[in-house]
Amino acid sequence: MNSKTVLMRWLVILGIVSLVFLAGCGGNSSQSANNQPPPPSGSNPTPAITTISPNSAVAGGAAFTLTIDGTNFVAASMVNFGGTAPTTTFVSATQLTAAIPAAAIASAGTAAVTVTNLAPGGGTSNAMNFTITSTSGPNPVPTINSLGPSCALAGGPAFNLFVSGSNFVPSSVVRWNGSDRPTTVFDASDAQAQIPASDIVATGTPAVTVFNPAPGGGSSNPSTFTVTPGGVNPQSIAVDPTGKFAYVANTGCSDGSVSMYTIDATTGALASIGPPVDSLDEGARSVTVDPFGKFAYVANWGEGDTAGSVSAYTINAMTGALTSVGAIFGACPGLGCTLLSPFSVAVDPSGKFVYVANEGGFSPTSISMFKIDATTGALASIGAVAAGGRAVSVIVDPSGKFAYVADSSNGFPAENNKVSMYTINTTSGALTSTGTIDAGINPSSVAVDPTGKFAYVTNSDSNDVSMYTINTTTGALTSIGLIAAGIGPASVAVDPTGKFAYVTNSGSNDVSMYTINATTGTLSSIGTIAAGLSPSSIAIHPSGKFAYVTNSRSNDVSMYSIDAASGALTLIGTIGT
Which residues contact 39 (CB under 8 A, 6 or more apart)? Predict the structure, then answer.
């Protein structure tokens, strides 16, 4: 064997040994490749910005779209605007857009605009400055159109004042009698100021203005705010069953309120117990007292700002003062009921149940049902039933077996001028519909006489009163005709003897007086008597000797004595709400 052959054999042996050694050491080539990251398919470039459009905005302006032109943009490029990351849209390798929110340009200054491409590679572009100017020119002179609210109770709590107008700028300030108040400007026509309780300690008419600073600027026209001594826009009055106290629901100012009075048993005159109490919501529309004089309930319609609520109070038997026990607010979350613009509230004669008529805006609405906690007066929902239209008034008959609801047609076809009828389960309090019956145009209030034999409904647009007999077994109503009232009849009440009925006429500012035929239930007019401006509600004292009328535009209560023989009213006087 020659030396060349020997050398070749040794090389083969060495190769085999090397392969065995590498395999024993875990050096298989495929395994080594799996333990390494795959090589990158490419690296992102570093972006560059050439122009931005627009390159400026006025502080406090609206949201807008920013266009960024440049190079080396990728699908994952991100725009940074003054330290924030707006939503970025990739248009092409040379263009991006970004959605800039109004909050990003709320204050004057400079915002740096950059574009970042993520790794691998990538990086952040050059910065372009975006200028946020304090104004596009000299500030204009602002104008006030309206205030919300436009009044408040003297001694009331702090509140937020909404100011509507024009030419507001981000630096506008609302002034109260010339003094700056903390202000938030929402846009050129809307602002809000924080008004402390110290501003409404005393009655008066402070001037509200809006001031725009230089350059330009100046003070707006003044708008008068009224700090009132009592409730504004009274809508409903109730007298407690002992005849010692009376309560008035006021819709006006910010939150609604309830005015409280004692009643002189001899003269019938009302005397204020003190400042009105807060109704806990906007638009206190109706007030009632339970048959034992322990609790009072108020329906707050919400004035379109809230869904409304029902407030509950305990009554101090000695002083008549109300103490809040809370409220159930619109939609009754978790309680399984519906409250939507409550307009009227009634308690059944047993004092166990409360019923609320939900006016509800422009759709057929409902009657909410509640059970009363006999100890606290708090309400618990037991559901709701449908009404025939805009339910604006609810009453329970003296037996506690039937309920009736006046369904306004305002915003509905004429066929919705109805009275809805219900039976009451005296154990559970649940209502069951027994149908509807026609009324006049826009029924506004319903009352039942103390015998439970007759019912009366005011019709505000046909200026009359619908009269009905009641089937004492089924609760069904049967029409016995109409009788004329004044202009815009709003409320009806029957005296405790069942001999007389009274109707407030909001358009003619008077009260229509009627006698009741004890056999047929028909009404006969005995004339009218003047009231205040836009009388809205009437209540009769349990003794049958006095009547009380709320006047919504003159913010007071007219007090009358009742002639026991004729039913005629005689004015005793008036008292503010």
Answer: none
